[in-house]
Design a protein that fits this description.
This protein has helices spanning 8-35, 61-81, 89-109, 127-144, 147-166, 179-188, 217-236, 240-261, 274-297, 308-311, 314-323, 327-334, 338-341, 346-366, and strands at 195-198, 201-204. The chain is an all-alpha fold and 373 residues long.
């Protein structure tokens, strides 16, 4: 298999991530919310984030998005690194255009920009914005530095986060008082997610909101760079066997390192802690290895090839699912089913939302339209 060949596995893994977010989780949450009183053994927490410390299935979704954005860097940027194209103002214009588009779309998706109310606006609060920060730094470092230099910078960002927590943060990893949340409150102020104005006074609308973005950006960069290193192995590995070996060994090492760190530096997704970065980075390496082996090496898709509709227009799929509601259409067409479905009627709206999103990205794929930042 040629290393230059497009990775079908990456498209399908990205599509799988979006499938979980757009279709699987919403449908399962509706089912579990109505069934848990009848069947207590079902765990709706499987589809929600961990309250604070620890690992959970749903906490993988965001790191996987970011990791996969990094994988594309060696494939998209090699022409600049090799000198085939100059890293002139056009290169930086393209790079920062991507940054601003992703940041702007993050404002639309989760920054409440569409409210047209400055009191409800959040500056930094979305996965797309975290990708924007990580991607622009990782891409510049990839083009300008050899692999050893990139690893050095990734280690620098990783250690700087730890040092800030160990010194200014006094090793306080408690929710509400840790240094990452203090920095967000100081830098973002009333424009921090969860804050709003009532009667001229800034109030916290979400007292349990503990996600952080400013200091966490150091490890956002590391997460994207880990993806870039995986992309490097996939593009320049001598053979599929060696590529798989690198992905698997790296994944296992990262997970073991994270678990070894966790008693002192706990795994906390809300603040994107360093051990969390390593743990989910390792899981992402192993998932990429699995999909690469099955899809690209064995050329087996097992009926999941339709995931490419999500994967090859991931920005469109994500934004449509988060911003556009098709449920008013669903209620207009299928309201008669409520008398027969009872408490399960919300499933109709959830499924209709997911199917409409799928049909749109499939239509884009069939028309060979691929919208990227």
């Amino acid at each position: 298999m040629e290393a230059q060949k497009r990775l079908k596995s990456l498209d399908l893994l990205r599509g799988f991530d979006l499938f979980l977010l757009i279709m699987f989780q919403p449908i399962m949450l509706v089912l579990l919310n109505h069934l848990h009183s009848k069947i207590p053994v079902l765990f709706p927490t499987l589809f929600d984030h961990v309250t604070w410390k620890g690992v959970g299935f749903w906490d993988l979704i965001m790191p996987l998005f970011m990791f996969m954005s990094g994988i594309t860097i060696p494939f998209a940027m090699s022409r600049y690194k090799s000198g085939g194209e100059k890293t002139d103002r056009h290169f930086y214009f393209h790079l920062f255009k991507r940054f601003f588009i992703l940041f702007f779309m993050g404002w639309i998706v989760q920054g409440n920009l569409l409210c047209l109310d400055i009191h409800q606006f959040a500056i930094f609060s979305n996965t797309l914005q975290a990708i924007a920060v990580g991607y622009v730094v990782a891409a510049i470092l990839y083009v300008k530095l050899p692999l050893s230099g990139q690893v050095g910078f990734a280690a620098f960002f990783f250690l700087l986060y730890l040092i800030i927590f160990a010194t200014f943060g006094k090793m306080d990893y408690s929710s509400g008082t840790n240094i990452a949340e203090q920095i967000d409150r100081c830098v973002l102020g009333r424009f921090r997610a969860g804050m709003s104005w009532e009667g001229g006074v800034v109030v916290n609308l979400w007292p349990r909101y503990h996600y952080t973005w400013v200091l966490s950006s150091l490890n956002f960069i590391v997460t994207v760079m880990l993806g870039s290193f995986a992309g490097y192995a996939l593009k320049f590995g001598d053979s599929p066997k060696k590529r798989l070996k690198v992905l698997c060994i790296t994944g296992v090492v990262l997970i073991v390192a994270a678990l070894a760190m966790s008693p002192v530096f706990p795994i906390i997704k809300h603040i994107w802690s360093s051990s969390m970065t390593l743990f989910y980075g390792g899981v992402c390496f192993l998932l990429m290895a699995l999909f690469y082996y099955v899809v690209d090496v064995k050329e087996f898709t097992g009926g999941i090839e339709w995931l490419k509709y999500f994967g090859m227009n991931s920005l469109v799929a994500y934004c449509i699912s988060e911003v556009v509601s098709f449920r008013s259409i669903s209620n207009s067409l299928f309201f008669g089913l409520e008398q027969y479905m009872g408490e399960f009627y919300p499933l109709v709206g959830v499924c209709f939302q997911a199917i409409m999103t799928l049909l749109i990205v499939k239509w884009l794929y069939d028309c060979h339209i691929f919208i990227k930042a």
